[in-house]
Amino acid sequence: MTTSLHTVDAAAPAGTVTLVAYLPSALDVGRLARLAAPVAMVQIGLMSMGVVDTVMVGRVSPTDLAAVALGHLYFFFVAIFGMGVLFMLDPVVSQAHGADDPEAVARSMQRGLILAAGLTAAAMASLVPAGPVLTLARQPAEVVPTAAAYTLGLIPGVFPFYGFIVLRQTLQAMGNVRPILVTVIAANLVNVLLDWMLIFGHLGLEARGAVGSAWATSLSRWFMMLALVTVAWPLLRPTLVPLRRAALAPAPLARMLRVGVPIGVQTWLEFGVFATAGLLMGLMGAIAVASHQVALQFASLTFMVPLGIAQATSVLVGQAVGRADPHAARRAAGAGLLTGAAFMALAAVPLLTMPEALARMFSDDTEVVAAAALLMPIAGVFQVFDGLQVVAAGALRGIGDTRVPMIMALVGFWFVGLPTCIGLGFALDAGPRGIWWGLATGLGAVAVLLLARIRRRFGRALRRLVVEDEPGEAR
User: How many folded domains does the chain comprise?
Assistant: First the structure.
């Protein structure tokens, strides 16, 4: 009986692997682009749902808008760990798919849903005390009751939020993204309609403002999960029916968690450092917070593309490892890094050359525009580092390497980036620009560490992740 995650050897490299081994061909880049483009569009579609909520609630009152911002932050502070845990389906499913092992794909999918149920229970329990937690965090007293009610309205949508991730990661890992894209487009339309009805009280419903937005989000998430099952049923049916008894075995579930928990922690570490930077901005006044938000909005939008590239890289690396082709795995990693860095370098150009024009797209306030224009060029610098670190993490996730990257994220973000934010922003009195240079430093440190990890791990034997007690386990 095997207790290790790594049990099936791919061909080990002969001798030292040089950098040439990572150089992708045009075919490798094209394969990556065909998968990454729709994945990035899905990311933008998911982000746009939150943008629409913010825009529509902003027409109700400043208090409702602040409540949505605060409640949204609290929700993701709680839920983002579980989201990262479920990303372990990327390597597990993609490697099983690459090895032409449909039973392993089905068991992994069903285990993902079981873990999603457990993560749902934990997240719901953490969301219930939103009011007291926000009060303890000294948030504005006039905003806390509405923010707490908004957070409670998101609770019914927690399971479909996680369930959609399981379905999405499984389909992506098998290279089937079109059903996800169709579903997300439809969900955006449904979300707009539900926002219109529940925020403003149309079609005979009571106007609920921010709380209505929360219920619209929960209902949209149920629609998104069920619609994806319906649209992709021919692809999903073999993975959902029948229920595999082996999916309930505790040992394989624990092994999947050994892969997933470090991803969850790493995701939370990155989210947490940016959230903390926002809190540090709050100590500098409203203009600093607003300028930070404006610059971050643009950076977040462009980040969706390398995030899509990272997920596509993880899938292609995993599939190559599954079919015992380490050379293809290295070229897939190289294609992802090259494409991600190139896109972010292009995205940095407008940030460096026309920061004020970009800032005016998000705000009409002259003080906010002027302050944001000072941050935009710094965002242009850290864009490249951000693209490299997220794609590098995706490539390592494709081979199931998650624990060491988590430690590297802790070191880069919290031991390098955050102290630099505080030192430059406050000790050296550089203000908001100091905090952003600290973020850039942290991202740069993580990128360098992860690139070194890629050189080390991809230069050794690449092995398929097998989470079963033994490869021939009963179905």
Answer: 2
201: number of Cβ within 10 Å: 14
Q: Please, what are the averages of pLDDT over each run of 10 residues along the chain (475 residues)?
A: 42 58 86 92 87 80 79 89 95 93 93 96 95 84 88 96 96 93 95 94 88 95 97 94 90 93 94 86 77 80 91 94 93 95 92 88 79 90 92 95 96 96 93 94 96 92 79 42
Dist. CA 152–CA 150, nearest whole Å: 5
- Looking at 216, 248, 280, the residue that finishes a domain is 248
Residue 206's alpha-carbon distances to 148, 203, 252, in angstroms, are 19, 9, 48
Q: What is the 3-state secondary structure (H, E, C) of 221-236?
A: HHHHHHHHHHHCHHHH
pLDDT at 386: 93
For residue 282, the model assigns a pLDDT of 74
Helices (H), 8-157: 26-57, 62-86, 89-98, 102-127, 130-136, 144-154
Structure tokens at 262: 């470090």
Residues 6+ apart with CB under 8 A from 342: none
Looking at the fold, whether 34 and 85 belong to one and the same domain comes out as no
Helix (H, G, I), strand (E, B) or coil at 465: strand
- Look at residue 372 and tell me if it is in a domain: yes
The Cα 107–Cα 96 span in angstroms is 10
The three-state secondary structure class of 6 is strand
* First vs last C-alpha separation in the chain: 16
Same domain, 393 and 272: yes
* 370 and 454 both lie in a single domain: yes
DSSP state of 14: S
For residue 388, the one-letter residue type is L
* CA angle centred on 62, ends 56 and 67, rounded to 5°: 80
What is the model's pTM? 0.88
pLDDT at 59: 79
* Structural Rg of the chain based on CA atoms: 22
CA atoms within 13 A on the CB side of 158: 27
165: three-class secondary structure by DSSP: helix
CA distances from 81 to 44, 85, 177, 247, 268 (A): 20, 6, 24, 22, 6
Cα–Cα distances in angstroms (integers) from residue 151 to residues 62, 275, 312, in the given order:
17, 18, 32
Contact 302, 344 (CB under 8 A): yes
DSSP code of residue 155: G
Structural domain of 99: 58-248
- 3-state DSSP helix/strand/coil percent for the chain, to nearest 5? 80, 0, 20
Q: What confidence score (pLDDT) does residue 469 get?
A: 66
pLDDT score for 475:
38
Specify the DSSP class assigned to residue 7. Answer: E
244: left (phi over 0), alpha (psi -120 to 50) or beta: beta
